[in-house]
Design brief:
alpha/beta; single chain; 7-stranded mixed β-sheet
Length: about 260
């Protein structure tokens, strides 16, 4: 083989070896950036990131931003902060089931409204969540198997989200503003009870009681004011009667002038 050919072959071999090393280093660096127990994969043509049973206590920050399916189930995540998934614009499915979530901040799912079609929050520790946390979200949401407080806020939440098929029966009253509802499916309860209407009536009664209290205070003050003036007038008249005739007329004139 000519010398030039050997040099060319050696150069190509070195270039391919260098590219392989760079690719390997990139893969190792990416793997090192992921939390322990998390790994990317591809399932049915969708880019998936799995962190199931990874002992996580918060939502990971280094999730690839082209992820379509994210599994964070069976961890120990206690709450979802604002903008927790804002860097995942292509996310289609989000599984947060079997965690310890007790709080979902308003705006936690901001940025996911356009594409997300499945959100699983089942088997957590949710007691009460504002409907604002799910504003503009079009995904099918699973809220089953949580220790829900059945009240007006839960009623507003259920009306605001699109529940995943077959999950509604798992939304059960663990506690309630009305004790007889404990242990019953929430949708069964609100078929006969409007929690928000009851709350409105209670609020209206409280407002009426408050207004009546203020009205009674004003009336009491007016009565006190009139009686006090009457007492002062009576004392002044008695004082005038006790004066000599000439001085009394002068005082009366002064009093009349003052009144006028």
């Amino acid at each position: 083989m000519p010398v030039a050919g050997r040099v060319l072959l050696r150069s190509v071999t070195m270039w391919l070896l260098l590219q392989s090393l760079l690719l390997l280093a990139s893969c190792l660096r990416s793997a090192a950036a992921f939390p322990k127990g998390c790994y990317p994969s591809e399932e049915e043509g969708l880019k998936t990131f799995r962190c199931s049973n990874a002992q996580l206590t918060e939502v990971p920050r280094d999730i690839p931003n082209d992820t379509n399916k994210l599994y964070l189930d069976s961890n120990r995540i206690p709450f979802l902060p604002r903008d927790a998934f804002r860097d995942l614009p292509l996310l289609l499915e989000l599984d947060l089931s079997h965690n310890a979530i007790v709080s979902v901040e308003s705006g936690a799912f901001r940025g996911l409204a356009e594409h997300l079609h499945s959100l699983d929050l089942s088997s957590n520790r949710l007691v009460s969540v504002s409907k604002d946390a799910f504003s503009n979200l079009k995904a099918k949401v699973n809220l089953s198997n949580n220790p829900w407080l059945c009240d007006c806020q839960l009623q507003e939440l259920i009306r605001a989200v699109d529940l995943a098929a077959g999950s509604s029966g798992g939304i059960v009253c663990d506690s309630s503003t009305q004790q007889e509802h404990v242990g019953k499916a929430f949708l069964q309860v609100i078929a006969d009870t409007d929690f928000c209407n009851v709350y409105k009536k209670t609020t209206d009664i409280a407002m009426l009681v408050t207004m009546f209290g203020w009205f009674a205070m004003v009336i009491s003050y007016l009565v006190y004011y009139v009686r006090q003036n009457q007492e002062d007038a009576r004392r002044h008249l008695e004082y005038l009667k006790s004066l000599p005739s000439k001085q009394r007329r002068s005082e009366e004139s002064s009093t009349i002038s003052t009144v006028v």
